[in-house]
Amino acid sequence: MKKIAVLTSGGDAPGMNAGIRAVVRTAIFHGLEVVGVRRGYDGLMRGDFIPMDSHSVSDIIQRGGTILKTARSEGFRTKEGMLEAKSRIEEAGIEGMVLIGGDGTFKGAKDFSEISGIHSMGIPGTIDNDLYGTDYTIGYDTALNTVIEAVDKIRDTAASHQRLFFIEVMGRDAGFIALNSGLAAGAEDILIPEARSSIDDVIKRIEAGRKRNKTSFIIIVAEGDDPGGAYEIAKQVNEKYHYLESRVTVIGHMQRGGNPTCFDRILASRLAVAATEGLIAGRKNEMAGLINNQIVFTPFSKTHKHLVDINEGLLNIAHMLST
Ligand code: F6P
Fold first, then answer.
1. CA of 313 to the centre of ligand 1 (A)
2. What is the CATH number of domain 140-257?
3. Does the domain formed by 3-139+260-303 have CATH 3.40.50.450?
4. Region 99-118 average pLDDT
5. Contact at 8 Å (CB) between 162 and 116?
């Protein structure tokens, strides 16, 4: 193998740049040429390639976002789009790819390898932590820290005004960010799609808190918990419960930005080295993940998010400790 490509795809996540840096420098260390693909699979179809040298990834390990840009490509889902990408890759002499992205990225890569015969290795990059085959995805730890910083600030005003706050966090259809940020921020309740709570349950927990002289409450709502999000939950609670003034905060895309934490930088570096060296050694169509602090390779066919289990025991801990 003489030349490989690296790309980022799907939602950006803090730590993707640390991953790009490690792919480029690992490839150069092993004597390979590397190109960066701009704007994910869209750029692959258009041949939007840039040569990467060691200097091109200087001063990025600490930066959020992705210097290669990213996209959620519709065109690449079609056979025509994939054949277009195959032609561009072959013209450029690229023999393998390292992909940083989420479950849609790896599903696309699996289909692409079947159609084109061009193989890749993957690195899990998403704040949602919803990939099977790794305990942590790149960006998740940074997103959690962003959320708890925001919740700590909201706690100050909630306590001062004796209010009930519903705070919506990201995660698409998974509750990892909500569950773990809620536990870390001492939220009075946490609503996640994996463990449904009724509105009456939510009210019961608020009432139990008031009996213990609590005067303000933070309820973390995963965006995937209810189709209407935190606004809808707040509306339903407010229809039945009138003793506290309430407010809703949607933290939103702030959760995707910012400098990656130390954990995410190290995770991205380790996984990128493993994926790149795996590709050079002949591995294909697998994601490098970290399980019990060991590198584990999982085929793209198994990285689906629906296989991931959340630790519901943490919800019981959060409830017990917030009483
Ligand atoms: O997958 C990452 C994520 O931030 C999800 O948590 C969220 O549901 C989604 O992307 C938002 O996507 P977009 O930036 O396209 O609105």
1. 26
2. 3.40.50.460
3. yes
4. 96
5. no
Q: Which residues are catalytic?
A: 128
Average pLDDT over residues 125-147: 97
- Give ranges for CATH 3.40.50.460 in the chain: 140-257
- Is 130 a pocket residue for ligand 1 (Cβ < 6 Å)? no
- Alpha helices, H only, the chain: 16-29, 40-46, 79-92, 103-116, 140-161, 176-184, 199-211, 229-240, 262-280, 313-321
Q: What is the pLDDT of residue 175?
A: 96
Element (H, E) at 54: none
Ligand 1 probe mutation, 106, 130, 170, 176, most atoms within 8 A of CB: 170
178: Cβ below 6 Å to ligand 1? no
- Which residue has a Cα nearest atom 9 of ligand 1? 172
Query: Residue 1: which residues within 8 A CB-CB, separation 6 or more?
Result: 32, 95, 96, 279, 280
Distance 253 CA to ligand 1 centre (A): 8
User: Across all residues in the chain, what is the average pLDDT?
Assistant: 97
Q: Determine phi and psi for 217, rounding to 5 degrees.
A: -140, 140
Q: How many CB atoms lie within 10 A of CB 167?
A: 25
Residue 72 CA, closest ligand 1 atom number: 15
- The yes-or-no verdict on residue 39 having pLDDT over 80 is yes
Asked if residue 128 has its Cβ within 6 Å of ligand 1, the reply is yes
Q: Where in the chain is the domain with CATH 3.40.50.450?
A: 3-139+260-303
Give the pLDDT confidence of 183-232 residue by residue, as tens digits.
999 999 999 999 989 999 999 999 999 999 999 999 999 999 999 999 99
* Whole-prediction pTM: 0.97
What percent of the chain shows pLDDT beyond 90? 96
